[in-house]
Amino acid sequence: MMAQFLDIKAAHKNALLFYRMGDFYEMFFDDAVAAAEALDIALTKRGKHLGQDIPMCGVPVHSAEGYLLSLIRKGFRVAVCEQMENPAEAKKRGSKSVVHREVVRLVTPGTLTEEALLEARRHNFLCAYALVRDEAALAWADISTGEFHVMPLPPIRLGPELARLMPSEVIVPEGSEQELAETVTESGAALTPLGRAAFDSTGSERRLCDLFEVSSLDAFGQFSRPEISAMGAIVEYLEITQKGRLPLLRTPQREAQSRVMQIDAATRRNLELTHALNGGRSGSLLSAIDRTVTAAGARLLERRLSSPSRVLEVVQARLDSVEFAVQKTRITDLLRDDLRKVPDLDRAMSRLGLDRGGPRDLASIRNGLEQTLQIAARLDQAALPALLVHATKSLVGHDVLLDLLDQALIAEPPLLSRDGGFIAPGYDEELDEMRQLRDEGRGVIAQMQQEYATQTGISTLKIKHNNVLGYFVEVTSTHADKMLSAPLSETFKHRQTTANQVRFTTVPLSEMETKILNAGGRAVEIEKRLYESLKAAILDQADQIGAAARGLAEIDLATALSDLARAESWTRPTVDSSRKLDIRGGRHPVVELALRKQGGGPFIANDCSLADGSDGADIWLLTGPNMAGKSTFLRQNALIALLAQMGSYVPARKADIGMVSQLFSRVGASDDLARGRSTFMVEMVETAAILNQSDDHALVILDEIGRGTATYDGLSIAWATLEHLHDVNRCRALFATHYHELTSLAGKLPGVENATVAVKEFDGDVIFLHEVRKGAADRSYGVQVAKLAGLPDAVVARARVVLEALEKGEREGAKKATLIDDLPLFSAVPASPAPNPKTSKVEERLAQILPDELSPREALQLLYELKDTAQS
């Protein structure tokens, strides 16, 4: 056995080997040591190898999925090795023969299909990146849903696209791992090198044609050699990991960068589109707007949010579908109730296609198709917008398959086909007979006994059973002559005579005995055969069922966005091909939701107007104190533009959005010590990307450029950056800064306009109004904000002294050295200690109270006394 393990392990050196032994998957040698540590399970030993104990650990087969998930998340790959015969078959070859085993599957991050291993509301993409001479392409597939896409992609765009897709695994040609490792790992994906033969475009084309059973790929579009290479590499990798059992991939869809808004990784992170800065989904834009009720709808929402469209017709069609759902409140509510009952058709189909499904997947297809009919009946196609017309058409035409599944399946099938019991009574005559024999064998024998008693005229005739004879007919010796004489002797064959009884058998009784004894196993075999036939019937309709699943997702997304729009008072944006960005009463969807959950005050809506040079400023220069809401204002306008091009209503009173080609955000920063970058370096790298890539239809939001270095250096960088955006990039931008010197540029650059976040000062404190107004702030109120943050009074007071001296020196034009010398920075006067806080009368009275000595009445009286004291 150990020799067999070592042979199989030699072929899968880069994976942990799950070696099936009965009801357990066992691991040995280094695999056992690594798995025991990763899974926190006991490490034992089994036998010896080369004089050393063999480490061993194992996990139960019935709970293996949970262990697989833990190993995958910790970066392992697992080769699942199953027994291909039972031990009895092996023994026929000899008493010491080893059960034949084979690896049936390689489990990797990008090839998961089990429901327990996947997030229902997220795609699990497997990517492949191919480089052919000076060209490159990226292909990606989700084998759990059948999605399959490809696009030409230069290396400089690989990082942003991986940030958009968030794949689990990226395949690259052997030899390019080092070059691409940093880009891939930044996206959170596992990097998998694959032999360069897998990326050969000629072989890739042949593999793709075989997969889709076509003679040429021309029917799917015109693909470049790198695109064919990347797609072929995915198919080759799936053949390796799935051991030849390929998933149900849809025909490849070619995408183009020009059709979607370009958003780089830093912008996605800064805007917290699908994940908050802490890495979780809570607090992200996706979590704030997701009201989908199906898993497929949720995945579609994430795709749309990650890839807002730049095609005006597409955006308008999506907005039309949401508007329809907003206006048809009653039908929308009914549709959402129906959609809640829709199972995940895509993933059920995928499991069936890979032979990892079960009866519940058959039921999922049946239940989903039943709901499609219900949903289609609610929609009047004549009144629908074009997108929903197309979606609704895909919901019909499944009557034959639905009737078959309705007749064949019970309402709630078991998980596994080997458990049996999922085929409905009356569907298969032989199965019904086997079940009757299995479940009612005693009744069948009693019926035969009655028939035989009538036939022979012997009322005392009995059918009995023992372990030697099996079932037999027994009569008393007084009736022996009758049974042994014709014509009964032709039917009843003598088996045994005892002192008082004579025993017989019949051909029907022997056949019935065999049937009863084998009925349970035979019933399971029949159900397995019927399962295969039902699965085949479903897979024959895979394309139509996939289209229905996409139609249901489209309807779910439209109704979900309409529900969001109605509940949150969002409005339909006007989207066109201009450069205008005019938002009235805009709000930040995530912050507004957080304020409501925390019971805070209402969100203060603000306007933003960026337009062509003839109509208004292209750039707003925003000043104001920290904590006043500058960053929120910047982000909310970027998110509104993004939501509009996604095809959603937006959190604003009115919004006119000129198509945004690129969205860039540099808001906040942190260091990147692993790559040797300081906070300021990260800021400069992100700013450089913006200045080098932005075109005139881009929308850029920048916050506090240059604050990570010396004042004059930072001011110079911010100044030059603003001029470059205005003169060279000529894009729309919101530029927040504390460098008030920059406000003078509004008078020099025609496309720059000043705006500020209003505050009010009262008794030395600052009150944030969160209102954005035209004009410039006169100061930053940093000391007041520091006081609000809880700095000791002594520090705040000292800061005021230093600030007054600095401002006085600046007004008088003093040189820096003289100014610093004039400041009492190093005076011998010690810093005044923090003053003791004053105690109130209520606190003084509380200090006198001994609670344990109070009666309930005295305590109540004291409460009234304290209330009066506090009010006086």
Topology (elements, then pairings):
Blueprint: H1 2-10, E1 16-21, E2 24-28, H2 29-39, E3 44-49, E4 52-60, H3 64-73, E5 78-83, H4 87-91, E6 101-107, E7 126-132, E8 135-142, E9 147-152, H5 158-165, E10 169-173, H6 177-186, E11 190-194, H7 201-212, H8 225-241, E12 253-254, E13 262-263, H9 265-271, H10 285-289, H11 295-306, H12 312-327, H13 329-339, H14 345-353, H15 359-378, H16 386-393, H17 399-408, H18 429-456, E14 462-466, E15 470-476, H19 480-484, H20 488-491, E16 493-497, E17 501-505, H21 507-540, H22 542-568, E18 574-576, E19 581-586, H23 589-597, E20 606-610, E21 619-623, H24 630-646, E22 654-658, E23 662-666, H25 679-693, E24 699-703, H26 711-729, E25 732-736, E26 752-762, E27 765-774, H27 782-789, H28 793-811, H29 816-822, H30 841-847, H31 856-871
Question: Can you give a write-up of this model?
Answer:
The structure is a single chain. The protein is α/β, with parallel strands linked by helices and 872 residues long. It folds into seven domains: 2-107, DNA repair protein MutS, domain I (MutS, DNA mismatch repair protein, domain I), CATH 3.40.1170.10; 135-255, Nucleotidyltransferase, domain 5, CATH 3.30.420.110; 291-398 and 541-567, MutS, DNA mismatch repair protein, Chain A, domain 3 (Orthogonal Bundle); 431-526, MutS, DNA mismatch repair protein, Chain A, domain 3; 576-738, P-loop containing nucleotide triphosphate hydrolases (Rossmann fold), CATH 3.40.50; 791-837, no CATH class; 841-871, no CATH class. It contains 31 helices and 27 strands. The strands form five sheets. Strands 13-23-24-25-21-26-27 form a seven-stranded mixed beta sheet, with helices on both faces. A six-stranded mixed beta sheet has the order 3-4-2-1-5-6, sandwiched between helices. α14 runs antiparallel to α15, α15 crosses α17 and α25 (679-693) runs parallel beside α26. The longest helix is centred in the middle third of the chain and has 34 residues, at 507-540. The chain is elongated.
